[in-house]
Amino acid sequence: MTTHKVAANGKERTRKNDPVRVQADIMRVATREFSEKGLSGARIDEIAEKTKTSKRMIYYYFKDKETLYLKALERSYQQVRQQEGELELDHLEPIQALSKLVAFTFEHHIKNPDFIRMVMIENIHHGRFIEQSELIQSLNAGAVDELQKVYRRGLETGQFRPGLEALELHWLISALSFFNVSNRYTFSRIFNWDQNAASNQEKLASHVIDMVLRYVVKPELMAD
Amino acid sequence: MTTHKVAANGKERTRKNDPVRVQADIMRVATREFSEKGLSGARIDEIAEKTKTSKRMIYYYFKDKETLYLKALERSYQQVRQQEGELELDHLEPIQALSKLVAFTFEHHIKNPDFIRMVMIENIHHGRFIEQSELIQSLNAGAVDELQKVYRRGLETGQFRPGLEALELHWLISALSFFNVSNRYTFSRIFNWDQNAASNQEKLASHVIDMVLRYVVKPELMAD
DNA sequence: GACTGAACGTACCATTTCGTACATTATGAA
DNA sequence: TTCATAATGTACGAAATGGTACGTTCAGTC
Fold first, then answer.
1. Residue A72: enclosing H or E segment and its boundaries?
2. A26 to chain B nearest CA, in Å?
């Protein structure tokens, strides 16, 4: 008696154990499902179906639905952070560096709608899961550093207004970038305005960049 | 044989028909539940329990869960619009009028977290329900008008920069006001910063107002 | 008072959904 | 080879959940 079976379709079928692949597969599908439908809206059975493995494996590796959700949330944060890479702002003038930083942040949000949705969902849950995750906090701790550096340089050259805090600046930039993705549907519908259209996205991007610059740069350096 | 019964607790119990009250009761509870847990997270049985009436009545008046959700969404929009009342900006200088408008919008969002949550949830659903609602669209059509008026007046006095559009300005103000409520939990957690604290809320409010003013008002009129 | 349609209560059903029991196979160590 | 443990497949169970069948009561009209 050999250890392999013959499947219904006639192909030889030998089970391979590949824990890493199986877990990655589950995470991939789970992240998409949770991001699309939320914690309560996503269905374990549906996640299992879209996986190459079975529901059994989900519970084997991830214990229960909430743990799976938390892992998916962590994965989302990890992925966007990894994508960020290096901006290389140090060789730019402070104003241009800030401009580039804002432009990048705005674009980065646009490119990661699934991540935005996960964050929205998590906020609906009052941040109950992110609270438990030390991983996520540690990931994001240094997110303000680059902005901090640019701002300090701008202060030294005398181009930036003093008295601002990097964290609060980051908050402003995040708000504008986040809202652009998170509230597309309702805003477009209410004002009968296709926010998604490329031309309008460009407009918004330049508005946002301009707005931040005008807030940080000394007014006398800004042309009307 | 009379038409009334005696309940178990001994009190006389005569059923009163009060359709308006019953519907209002259901709507009140449903709105809170959906806002708290989302469409898929909210439970009809739980809504029914928290109501003075029964599950039967929910289906009697609202057909099914999705219809109930849509009605709750519409109610949310209606309520916030009603609260807005009159700002009476016409007698103010353009700069002060704009300042007051932004301050009010920011505050108004803070006062209506349930509404914010409903909008977040609706965006998670890709705006599938708001699309069906002509009521909501009609409600919000004139939301930009006041801003429009102020901006025009500022142009006339020469205090505002030309070339901006009221809708896009409204978008910027909304983004900052909305994000302040919608992303509290994740932002606070990630940056270990109590965004909710009164002192920080005040800071953010003045940042937002200042930021909008610096964007709209001609730079030479802004002191450092 | 008789009649009618709207308003309401109770109990129930069918399905969905999270989670698990149980058996089997793979894989590396001794 | 043997053995232990990790990995996997199949089938199923119990509770939750959206929705309904069926009957009763209220309130206005003639």
1. helix A65-84
2. 22
